[in-house]
Amino acid sequence: MKRIIKSLPKWALAIGIVSSFATPSYAGEFDGVTLKVATWGGSWKANMEKIIVPKFEALGGKIEFVTGSPAASFAKLVAGRGRAPFDVMEVLDAQVGDFAQVDYLQPINLDLIPNKKNIQSFQYNNTYVGSWFTQEVICYDTEKFSELGIPAPKTYADLAHPALQDKVSLPDINSGAGLANFGGVVFAAGGDEENIQPGLDLMAKINATKFWKRGGETKTQFETGDIYAAVVHVGWCARAARAGSPVMSVHPEIKPGVKGLAKEGWLGIMKSSDNVAAAHWFINEYLTTDFQYEYAINSGVFPLNQEAIDKMKTDEINVRLMEMDSGNISKMLRIDYNKVDKTAWINGWNKTLTTN
């Protein structure tokens, strides 16, 4: 059976001809297969190495990681005209529109992803399978706010307080969280995907001087006292709390009925991949309770697997900082990137932050 799967053309795998072969894994199933996964480094890669890699190696295969941001991975795809140096890629929600304009992804055979039962139906389709999402928050130092007599922030506008000058860190527009959080500011200021000027005006009032490109920078800045507040995903706030910083998170009020901002991640299989069966196996393992929980605890992303979410509720820091109610999570703002002119967003952001 192994020879049959390896010899089938990629399109046959993609449309489901091999669905009848979706049997339990067996020793030697992936002998000689090296699966290449494009993902972040650090704890992201470390969690995969801990949970997923040993399982794949037990089946005879090897996993190599091509580390970098999804933007860097997409740039490699463009440079290679779709010939990717990897089989599976982490894709941000903001990149879905970019992929729609090119032919770099192949269909996913959902019959080969039985663990999709662990996530919601809207979290997978024939092109992508959901992997995680983040809760983008305002993380603030409760002790410093108390010392300065500043009320706990409720909105992005509260970060414009004079006492916070030089003490607020925002995501750089080109970071993985940059577009999403700028979108949150835009909506909170009364704009939308096509009218970003209210958000630019609010950014000018906040007048931040620190911009992070990796969320881990904020954890260090809280520890050193360089910042008193940051716009960052709640996982980094949790890491700062676990390291001893007196921080609390706030899911900012965006507009009536909308509180908090969600950023979503997906997994896609490259059209150029010769390891399609292994790529499906990897995505299926990504959705297991064990991996989703380990990933969430150590990386700070929020799991899609409901059992993993229930396990998250047993941790005091998670419960204190993260939104656990599925109803409230579903109401969080999600940017419609189909309506976003990224060039206009980036140019507007750069112009505003350069001149103010």
Automatic annotation (TrEMBL):
Q: Where is the signal peptide?
A: 1-27
Q: Give the UniProt keywords, A-Z.
A: Signal
State the PANTHER family in the record: THIAMINE-BINDING PERIPLASMIC PROTEIN-RELATED (PTHR30006)
Q: Does the keyword Isomerase apply?
A: no
Q: Which InterPro entries does its entry note?
A: SBP (IPR006059)
- Is the keyword Nucleotidyltransferase in the record? no
State what protein this is by name: ABC transporter substrate-binding protein
Instruction: Cite the Pfam families for this sequence.
Output: SBP_bac_1
